[in-house]
Design brief:
This protein has 70 residues and is an all-alpha fold. Helices cover 63% and strands 0% of the residues.
């Protein structure tokens, strides 16, 4: 497996990097070797102060909802 270069991560905002990090954590907690859209949603839920986090919240999506659909 190739690790992404540091310059690739510079394209993302700090909030985006944090959401992706939490998506990876969610995947690892489920013993999944890859990040799914559900994991990305879980990552966004960890960042409720961001625009994306606020949109997800406004749609009524929460951790329990995502986990029940995964």
């Amino acid at each position: 497996d190739r690790e992404p270069s540091a310059t690739m991560w510079q394209r993302f905002t700090e909030n985006s990097r944090r959401a992706i990090y939490f998506a990876q954590v969610a995947a690892q907690e489920q013993n999944v070797a890859f990040v799914t859209p559900e994991h990305l949603l879980l990552g966004l839920l960890h960042e409720p102060h961001t625009v994306a986090g606020q949109i997800v919240d406004a749609l009524g999506v929460n951790r329990a909802t995502v986990m029940s659909e995964a």
